[in-house]
Amino acid sequence: MDLQVNGSFGVDAVTDPGRLGELSEGLAATGTTSYLPTVISSPVEIYREVIPTLARAIGDAPRGAEPLGLHLEGPFISAEKKGAHPGEFLSPPNTDLLNELLDLGPVRMLTLAPELRGAAELAEEAVRRGVLVSAGHSNAHFGLAYGSFDRRVAGVTHLFNAMSPLHHREPGLPGAAFAHPRATSGLIADGRHVHPQTVALAFRMLGPDRLYLTTDAIAATGMGPGEYPLASRRTYLDASRGVPTLSDGTIAGSVLTMDEAFRNVLAFTGCTIPEAARMTAATPARLVGEGERKGRLAPGYDADVTVLDPHNLTVAAVYKSGAKVSG
Prior knowledge:
This protein has 327 residues and is of the alpha/beta class. The protein has helices spanning 20-29, 44-59, 95-104, 119-128, 142-150, 172-179, 196-206, 258-269, 273-287, and strands spanning 2-5, 7-8, 11-12, 34-40, 66-67, 70-73, 107-112, 132-135, 155-156, 184-188, 211-214, 226-230, 233-237, 244-245, 305-308, 315-320, 323-326. Helix 3 runs parallel beside helix 4 (119-128), helix 5 crosses helix 6 and helix 8 crosses helix 9. The two termini are 18 Å apart. The mean pLDDT is 97. Strands 1, 4, 5, 6, 7, 8, 9, 10 and 11 form a nine-stranded parallel β-sheet that branches. A three-stranded antiparallel β-sheet has the order 12-13-14, with no helix packed on it. Strands 15-16-17 form a three-stranded antiparallel β-sheet, with helices on one face. It is globular, with a radius of gyration of 18 Å. The chain is built from nine helices and 17 strands. The protein has a single domain, classed as Metal-dependent hydrolases (TIM Barrel, Alpha-Beta Barrel), CATH 3.20.20.
């Protein structure tokens, strides 16, 4: 299960919402059986157009990986830690705008900066409407971040990236994520967004039940060097860097796939295969409210199964609800 997918295989969820079926089929071939199409900070007009289109595509039950709903990454994030998000499309917390966005389609996850004025009230409203709230693109100091986990914020979006740093005198958002027993953190395990030894540190601090793997993949994933869309932005993939960037060099998502993330976390941390499976299935399923039907091989659960080759852990076959969809 991947909780953050902007696109892959030449498809961008925002600029190509009608191609969600193609995205689902491509993701299934990488072992992903369910995911959240992700919309980064955008103009209100784009939200009004794209979210209903994605909602209709989700309702069509595309073959391949199952889109469970949407992840809104922004627009209620910090201008200081906006990363690849266009600064002109950020918004201060606004409950009316939030409710308009939630009324447009099936939003399952919201990334916000908890230090913004009004963020606590916004998180309260999102949770009331059944949306997972995750802290990200945030410059929150340790105390504020820790306090937000006491309340309505349950997760952390791409740990270490686009957030206050882990410092020995001011641990910031990463330190709060380590310290608070409720916080569950996503992590991009491509070895570029987060150093392999820092991935190992996060695993030792959080364990497989509070750390989940995500890709933050964009349309460039599975393609070659070139220019690709990320919502309203243009990104560039250079083979020498291995990560997509904006024209100014800012990292803009990844080209990671979930099967690669699975193999990487084994290599970076020395964890077991069952622990890696929890970080790619049970933990994100539980966090997003799907823990009673997804993320486990057990009676009564959806028969979503990824079969890996025992020799090299590449994807051999993928089943969705018991039906073979890849391999």
